[in-house]
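Regression test attached.
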Amino acid sequence: MLGAPMCEETVTILANERDTDAYFRLVVRAPQIAPRVQPGQFAHVRIPPLREALLRRPFSIFQVAGDTFSILYKTVGKGTEALARMRPGETLSALGPLGHGFTVPAPGGETPWLVAGGYGMAALYLLAERSPQRGLVFVGGRRRVDILCEREFAALGWEVRVSTEDGSHGERGLVTQPLRAALQRGGVRCKLFACGPTPMLRAVARLAEEFAVPAELSLDQPMCCGVGVCLTCVVPIRTPDGWEYQRTCTEGPVFDARAVLWEVPDEKSEKRTPEFKV
Amino acid sequence: MNLSIQLGRLTLPNPVTVASGTFGYGVEYARLLDLNRLGAVVVKGIRLHPVRGNPTPRTVEVASGLINAIGLQGPGVDGFIEQYWPFLKTLRVPVIINIWGTTVEEYAEVARRFDALEGVGALELNVSCPNIKEGGAQFGTDCTLLGEVVAACRRATRLPLITKLSPNVVHIAPYAQAAEAAGSDALSIMNSFPALALDIETRRPKLANVTGGLTGPCIKPIALKLVWDAFRAVKIPIIGMGGIQNAADAIEFFLAGASAVAVGTANFYEPQTAFQVLDGLQAYLERHGLSDVRQLVGAAQA
């Protein structure tokens, strides 16, 4: 009933450096949070220079080493821009580790195939590191600079297949094209683990269905509290009785691809909740 | 030093509570916080049936605030009792259950169901949710309907009743008086303000529900004024809320006339806020040579 262990901790910035283009890598000392992190979990970070913006910002945890963890982020708004200006030695409040992450592959089970769009790679790193078996990593982005941490995955012994929309690195096209080709070749009992933009995840879910392979998806939704109380980050999820809104921060961010409904079903066609009558 | 306060027959061990809808059902914070240090745990609104809630996006951050249109997603009375009550009943501090309905009869039925549940501290009547088409706000912005809802619940239960008023009225005094006259033991002031945020590129509302309720520090001065006005209109105690982030904010509410306070939106970004408020309140009382928090209630002079 009490859910996953989480804590709130004042973490100290050890490094906060530009990776490529608008991407940054933040490393913090977090002795409470770091040892507890499971693959696919996130930290919810309060950025002190934000005065009028109150809410914490969620970030997938990238790497864990001893009492430190790191995140990869892109400057996309006032939160991440303020974070990019922070310097080593400064502190942040972090809640974590939060959320239900990926299922670590079992030895001798399906071969893991990771599918990432842009900084979605970050959420998959710990899974790649802790998986007892290596597999393929499909990573895509618009341009060369959107392909992150290719080397880190290769260093773990994974085969990385890159695609970019402009063809500046790897194959030209979307990440789902080489994935489809690999699924068509067949011969491997695989399971997909994906993180990236929603249209990419939806395409991965379709491929998983078409080729009847299991898939776990890490969904990205705007979040407010991060711990399951505010009900901001809900997504429609199939249940035995129909569907319900589940929380990306608590039941997710990782969901079974088959359970995710990409559109809210038309309520008019459903049985209405009976109104109360005395 | 005395920090306890009375809401009708209910004694709160200290006057710092949490606002319904910002604290889930308590259990979500149980790993992070010692819930037994709160004055009370106030759970998210429950109606008779399960409620799916509104489509997304459900919240949007604005300058020093948050607009939400969650739509009172919840498990209904039976789901609440099955999923959450086994944990909540183990708490040593009072549990206040926020209830709502779409008809006077439904409010009364929900009140009756919780009257039969051993260990409930009080019921808070949500007559002021701005995000539900039927039910909620219509009862909070019509004095006659408000009186009917409170009276029906009064007949349905012996539990202390706290009526949570809408800020969206010209004068709050008649609403406060209507709730008091109908048998409410206390008032919660206030719920969120109807509000809107637009995306200037798409020219569409940022919330799927179009409008929502504004909360957070940006509403604090308005909430404070409503507490001030209501305190001068009724004798029953007031739980003050609206943008409280620290002890100084809370102390303003006590001085304006609140007997207790609730931390709301701040829970979303700083779960320790209620405890920081409680510690700061005690320090303030000591610094001012006061022995009882009740000495602060309504102590501001015009």
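Expected vs. actual: identical. The CA atoms of residues 43 and 160 of chain A lie 26 Å apart.
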